[in-house]
Write a structure and sequence with these properties.
With 303 residues, the protein is of the alpha/beta class. It is 15% helix and 34% strand. It has a 16-stranded mixed β-sheet that branches. It is globular. Bound molecules: zinc ion (ZN) (2 copies). One zinc ion binds at residues 81, 94, 130-131.
């Protein structure tokens, strides 16, 4: 248990870049143009955004080209939210694919969601299982999406219907041995009834703000997610996970076993929690600040 855990991003070269991986413009059902949408994020201090318009026939299968909207200190990843029939509870899959080529073909007749996701991954994309709670995805649905790199564990739009959090399903999958990471995203549409944007993001560790570097880091799991707190360092040494973060009221260690290790306080910025209860499975860190904002690490595998 001693030693460095190489899948944690915190001591990797480079720095963290803040981005939103799930965003819609008026190329599908968003309210703003791609340029207006991106300007909103850039002005809010984001480093990158993936526009992921709905890749549906009714919108003429948009794969919105945002390359001309990159500027010094702000970049974009090309992507889409992919749809195909069907899940146990709903008529279509929602699959976030970031890093797609512009010539990615629309779904073939009869192509299933899991097949479409495999094609997106083979084309170079980081594949995310979008808002599982809001889609009422079952464990069987989720198991079938074998091309997913990651689960959208928090979706700010779905939080409107109190289904923003999808950690339960993610923990079930992780406990069955799936090596999935976890990301938070706005799913912003900028419609009047929507929650405010810029509330759920990823911090991606990479040596540069080049789209290729960000994409590689996403696939490798070199990121954490947040709706508020900053994680400065998380490391595993001698059976303890040590967390350094912006001031927090609670630091949690949960994982592939019921129960948790918890530290609470008024302004915690560093604490250590034992991993023993998670055996040779996995654990993960959640940090909660005084405003209820949370930050989540990716799963930390203990073998
Ligand atoms: Zn969706
Ligand atoms: Zn969406």
């Amino acid at each position: 248990m001693t030693g460095r855990v190489t899948d944690l991003p915190f001591d990797r070269p480079g720095r963290f870049w803040r981005g939103n991986l799930h965003t819609h413009s008026n190329e599908s059902d968003g309210a703003l143009s791609p340029a207006e949408t991106l300007r909103h994020y850039r002005d809010a201090g984001y480093d990158f955004v993936a526009l992921t318009d709905h890749f549906r026939a009714e919108f003429n299968f948009p794969l919105t080209d945002t390359t001309a909207l990159r500027s010094p200190g702000f970049t974009t990843l090309l992507g889409a939210e992919l749809h195909a029939p069907r899940t146990e509870a709903g008529p279509s899959w929602h699959i976030v694919a970031v890093g797609l080529p512009l010539d990615f073909r629309p779904p073939e007749p009869g192509e299933s969601g899991p097949e479409l996701a495999r094609r997106a991954r083979a084309a170079g994309a980081f594949v995310g299982m979008a808002h599982p709670s809001a889609s009422l995805l079952t464990a069987a649905d989720a198991e079938s999406l074998d091309a997913a790199h990651s689960v959208e564990v928090y979706n700010a739009l779905a939080d409107r219907e109190n289904r923003g959090d999808s950690w339960h399903l993610t923990d079930v999958l992780l406990n069955r041995g799936r090596r999935l990471t976890a990301y938070a995203a706005d799913d912003a549409h900028f419609q009047p009834q929507d929650p405010a944007p810029c509330v759920a993001w990823v911090q991606v560790r990479a040596e540069s703000l080049e789209p290729g570097a960000l994409l590689s880091a996403l696939k490798a799991g070199h990121f954490y997610s947040s709706t508020g707190p900053e994680l400065h360092d998380v490391r595993l040494d001698d059976g303890l996970v040590t967390v350094c973060c912006s001031p927090a009221r609670k630091v949690l260690l949960t994982g592939g076993a019921p129960g948790a290790q918890v530290v609470q306080g008024s302004s915690l910025t560093e604490c250590s929690l034992p991993v023993e209860m998670f055996g040779d499975g996995y654990c993960r860190v959640t940090v909660e600040d005084a405003d209820g904002g949370r930050a989540w690490t990716n799963p930390i595998h203990l073998t």
